[in-house]
Design a protein that fits this description.
This protein has helices spanning about 5-25, 30-40, 45-55, 60-95, 115-130, 145, 160, 180-190, 230-245, 295-300, 320-325, 340-345, and strands spanning about 135, 140, 175, 195-200, 215-225, 250-255, 260-270, 285-295, 310-320. It has 2 domains: about 5-95; about 115-345, 2-Layer Sandwich (BirA Bifunctional Protein, domain 2), CATH 3.30.930.10. The chain is α+β, with helices and mostly antiparallel strands. A 7-stranded mixed sheet has the order 1-4-5-9-8-7-6, sandwiched between helices. The N and C termini lie far apart (about 90 Å). The chain binds 3,4-dihydroxyphenylalanine. 3,4-dihydroxyphenylalanine (DAH) binds near residues 219 and 315.
Amino acid sequence: MMLSTSMLDRSIQELESRSLARIASAKTREDLEAARVEALGRKGGLNQFSKEMGKLPPEERKRIGALLNAAKQNLEAAIEARERTFAEAALNVRLDAEWLDLTLPAPGPRRGHLHPITRIQRELEELFSSLGFAVLDGPEVETEYHNFDALNIPPDHPARDMQDTFWLESGNLLRTHTSPVQVRGMERFGPPLRMIAPGRVFRNESVDASHEHTFYQLEGMMIDRDVSVAHLIYFMKTLLAAIFKRDVTVRLRPGYFPFVEPGFELDIQCLICGGSGCPVCKQSGWVELLPCGLVHPNVLRMSNIDPEQWNGFAFGLGLTRLAMMRYGIDDIRQLQGGDLRFLEQF
Ligand code: DAH
């Protein structure tokens, strides 16, 4: 086919205006792409005229070439402009959908808080610090000597059976109480001594509403000259008043612990049920909270303190049980359960 140059001019112009109209009316990206292929595609569109151009005399070839270039640029610009309107429309849809009301107050940061046991522990640390007691720490993996022997519990002593022990292969054990820190305190500082030792303890027990294999105690010890049961009672009353911030009914019973003589059980009336009986107090209305006594002379002697010169009292507070009483928690398993719905209540 041989087109005259005027026909070629017209064909180019026609293709250009048809394509411009199609680009302008494209409703989707697919429409636009079809229009682009028609106008600028490798096989069709303006390219089909390039072949014809080759057959023209040089000046004409130049003129038509310029015409084609101009048409191509127009079309490319039109496509680009149309593409921009699509992009803007898409952006507007997105902006509408993802609209944010920046005048709304931002939600506050979520804050954690201390575990109820930690809270009580810190309160007691503060109280006892104000009374001149040092706060001591001891290892959770203990030696048999510190956990038992130095507390006047020799290997064949039946009291060892009272505390089911997790033994380690090394011959050490997971401490069954915080009392070994008494021994470490006496070894390290000697008399006179006022110390408390809060911490985690472990017993190989079957778990129920009031027993856990892992729980918290707070040990206390005071050694000085002429310490009496009256001193002990004074400190225990101060302690309980600080914790409960209300009147609690207490009773003192004789209690046996190898490391004290005399030994006592200080019970408080159950604050969960008010004394009428519940699973926490095992239906008795009373909860053992504060075993205590005057330090046994053997215990002093084993830590190189002369019982003729010095004596003292000691107590072992059940921190876990105390938290349960104070916050009205009736199942010990909840404390270590890690359930935030439970913990967030405190
Ligand atoms: N260590 C004892 C226990 O866990 C509690 C105890 C009793 C501690 C009497 C004392 C005490 O300091 O005097 O069962």
